[in-house]
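Need Lysine--tRNA ligase's 3D structure for a figure. Predict it.
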Amino acid sequence: MQLSEQEIVRREKLTKLREMGINPYPAALYPVDTTSKSIKNDFEEGKKVVISGRLMSRRIQGKASFAELQDSEGRIQVYFNRDEICPDDDKTLYNDVYKKLLDIGDIIGVEGELFKTQVGEKTVMVKNFSLLSKALRPLPLPKVNEEGKVYDAFNDPELRYRQRYVDLVVNPQVKDTFIKRTKITNSIREFYNERGYLEVETPILQPIPGGAAARPFLTHHNALNIPLYLRIANELYLKRLIVGGFDGVYEFSKDFRNEGMDRTHNPEFTVMELYVAYKDYNWMMDTTEKLLEKVAVDATGSSKVKVGNHEIEFKAPYPRVPILEAIKIHTGYDVAGMGEDELREVAKKLDIEVDETMGVGKLIDEIFGEKCEHHYIQPTFITDYPKEMSPLTKEHRNNPALTERFELMVNGKELANAYSELNDPIDQRERFEEQLKLSEKGDDEAMFIDQDFLRALEYGMPPTSGIGIGIDRLVMLMTNNSSIQEVLFFPQMRPEKKKVELTEEEKAILDILKPQGEMSLSELKEKAGLSGKKWDKSTKNLSKHGLLKVEKTEDSLLAKYTG
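Structure prediction for Lysine--tRNA ligase:
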């Protein structure tokens, strides 16, 4: 492992600390009794406190130093005075340990007393401190040059998502998203628990990947010598529990789909599914309106939520638009009753890419997704889907070609999917067999036939309504984030690229260029002081690695740091 100069220095300090008898990673409990937020909110002059956190900045002035300590709730100023910390003749703890062997990023514990500085800042006067964890890598903290320009901010999305632990330290506002995520899930739990519904857990490893039309992940169980799938949905197991006599069950489910990745899709995601006996999709629409209004208020303090350039109003009621009517409104085509060939022709006229494996359901889904979905910014229930699109849904009571299903659209995307659940075992078997035909045509997202689920239905399932709500997308809406990666602590990432190894000459060029961000190429060359051959080779390699870009201006060539 090749270490940077700073990493080498920190390891040398680590050795010196150990030689002094200081354990840089002590095992004993540290008796923290307050936080930065509590100190500020309940400040009391002279109060003794014990606090711990990460050293984020310091200004050493001889025998005194102001520093900032960051804990889980924010930052607090701490004041180190040599004579307070070392009242006797031995000043080692301040002069050597604090001044020379501690680094920004180290985690320390502080015992002290509260006071206010001359400018009124609430501060901890350090009486004693302990090193709790030595940081061997420097934090990528932003820097400010003489002109006030910020550079080296840790804002590259790939680095932030890959090293979320660093992101949370140096960009503390990121924590707010995940705190709000917990508020959202707690709000949902509270809503359902008040109504007497039971939170349950169902299998993640399943012999049949049922409950949705999606491509599954496949694995193998060695002891049983059978293939197993990571679940794509928990629907069929929850409905088994309704068969078993529970009137209402819900689950926050980790689901997995072996499909594409983009700003709104991650292969591992969270869905909340609820099933309630003796209800239908009309009841579920009413209930969902009440739920989302409560969640918005609990998470943001208002039923109106800012999302991009829009203000989304989650207060009930929401419009209800049949899907075929939506397609007619936004395309001019009445696709009701059309077969595959007719729908394929409509899709082609609308410049929508389709293929021969798509049945009626997939074709209608593509047309709606491409031409209609983005129009629904405010919460809107899209209802009454054709039977071919909804193999687990009860036939519509007024039109046998349709089903009692809705999808909730918000900000141009699906947020929830719900049915009056199909509980006729014979009809369900026929629907599964239609899915099998699609699979034989090449549709790798068509549903499997789950024989055990059919057997469960044959014992009798009461009329039931169910819904699935995408938690990640709900959090995106409530936190005004346009990327799913921003609301997942550890989103799936492509394999990490090999670290670029730079020569000393290349490092020297970057050390000159990075603080400025950009400068004339001639000035950079002059300051680097390299021979023509080394200069040409170094700049060529930096450009190749995407760290240096040269642009032509009216007067000269401009070098830009692009790392």
